[in-house]
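Exercise 7b. C-alpha cells:
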C-alpha cells in the first residue's frame, strides 16, 4: 500500500544518505496503454514506459507472448490495473514481485472504485468496475504511486519525477475544469453504449447512458435481451450509440436494423494517441469530443 505522495517527500529522496544508485534508464512496463500514458507523464524526459497489450486489442481476452513474459521479467517497475481486468497477468505479476516493484492500481489507497454500472461500491470485497483510469482523480493517484516508486529506484531523477507529477496534476486540473464546462450542457440527454466501459468518465462529468446493448462483454447476450433493447430503442430512440473496441458489429446490426441511430466510435484505451506527457489528458478530451459528436444533432 502507498500513502498519498507529497512533493517535498519525493524531493527528499534525492538527498538521503545511502540511497540506491540511480538507474541508467528505469524500465517501466504497464499492462495497458492508458496506464502507459499516465506513467509517461511521470517519466517525461527520463525514459519511455513499455506496454504489454496493444491498444487495438481488448485487455479482457489478451494472451501473453513469450516476449511479454521477458519484458516483465526485465522490468524495474510493473504497473497494472488488477485481476478483474487482467486475469492473465495475475500469476506473472505474482512471480515477479521478488525482483520487481509492482503497482496494482486498484489496490492503491483512496482510489475511487465503483461497481459495474456506475453505482457506489458497497464494500471492499465487492466486484469493481475495472476501467478505473477513466476517472482523473484515480489517474492522479496512480501517477503519485509511480512517482513514489521511481524516486526510490532512481534517486538522481527524484526531483524530475516530482516536477513531472506537479505538471501532470496541473494539466489534469485544467482539463477537468474545461471538460466539466463542455459536458454540463449534455446532462440528461439520451444515448446508448455498446459496452458499459466508460462509467467512471460518465459519473465524473454527470452523464448517464439510457441503455447498454451488451451488459456483460464476456458473454453474448441472449435473443430475449436483444429484443428488449430493440423495443426500448424504438420507443425512445437515443441520440446515438457509443461503440468501442469490444463492439460486435453483428450484435449492433441485429438490434438496430433500420432504426435511425447514429453510431459513434469512442477510444477509452487511447489507441490513436502518442505516448507522451499530454497523452492521458488527450484521452479524456477525445472522449468528450465523442460525446459532442454523439449529441450534436439533438
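Sequence design result:
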Amino acid at each position: 500500500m502507498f500513502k498519498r505522495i507529497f512533493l517535498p517527500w519525493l524531493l527528499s529522496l534525492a538527498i538521503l544518505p545511502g540511497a540506491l544508485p540511480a538507474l541508467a534508464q528505469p524500465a517501466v512496463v504497464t499492462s495497458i496503454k492508458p496506464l502507459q500514458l499516465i506513467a509517461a507523464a511521470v517519466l517525461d524526459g527520463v525514459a519511455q514506459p513499455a506496454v504489454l497489450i496493444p491498444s487495438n486489442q481488448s485487455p479482457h481476452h489478451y494472451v501473453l507472448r513469450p516476449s511479454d513474459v521477458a519484458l516483465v521479467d526485465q522490468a524495474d517497475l510493473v504497473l497494472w490495473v488488477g485481476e478483474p481486468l487482467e486475469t492473465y497477468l495475475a500469476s506473472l505479476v505474482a512471480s515477479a514481485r521478488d525482483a520487481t516493484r509492482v503497482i496494482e492500481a486498484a489496490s492503491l489507497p483512496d482510489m475511487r472504485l465503483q461497481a459495474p454500472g456506475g453505482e457506489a461500491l458497497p464494500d471492499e470485497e465487492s466486484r469493481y468496475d475495472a476501467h478505473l483510469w477513466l476517472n482523473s482523480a484515480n489517474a492522479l493517484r496512480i501517477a503519485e504511486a509511480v512517482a513514489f516508486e521511481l524516486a526510490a529506484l532512481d534517486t538522481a531523477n527524484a526531483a524530475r519525477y516530482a516536477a513531472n507529477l506537479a505538471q501532470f496534476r496541473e494539466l489534469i486540473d485544467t482539463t477537468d475544469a474545461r471538460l466539466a464546462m463542455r459536458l454540463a450542457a449534455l446532462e440528461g440527454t439520451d444515448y446508448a453504449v455498446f459496452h458499459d466501459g466508460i462509467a467512471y468518465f460518465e459519473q465524473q462529468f454527470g452523464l448517464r447512458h439510457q441503455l447498454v446493448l451488451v451488459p456483460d462483454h464476456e458473454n453474448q447476450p441472449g435473443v430475449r435481451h436483444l429484443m428488449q433493447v430493440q423495443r426500448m430503442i424504438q420507443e425512445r430512440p437515443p441520440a446515438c450509440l457509443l461503440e468501442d473496441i469490444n463492439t460486435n458489429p453483428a450484435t449492433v446490426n441485429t438490434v438496430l436494423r433500420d432504426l435511425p441511430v447514429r453510431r459513434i466510435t469512442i477510444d477509452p484505451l487511447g489507441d490513436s494517441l502518442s505516448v507522451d506527457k499530454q497523452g492521458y489528458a488527450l484521452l479524456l478530451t477525445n472522449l468528450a469530443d465523442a460525446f459532442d459528436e454523439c449529441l450534436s444533432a439533438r
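Instructor comment: Residues 1-7, 13-20 have pLDDT under 50 and may be disordered. Strands lie at 28-30, 50-51, 77-80, 101-104, 192-195, 211-214, 240-243, 262-265.
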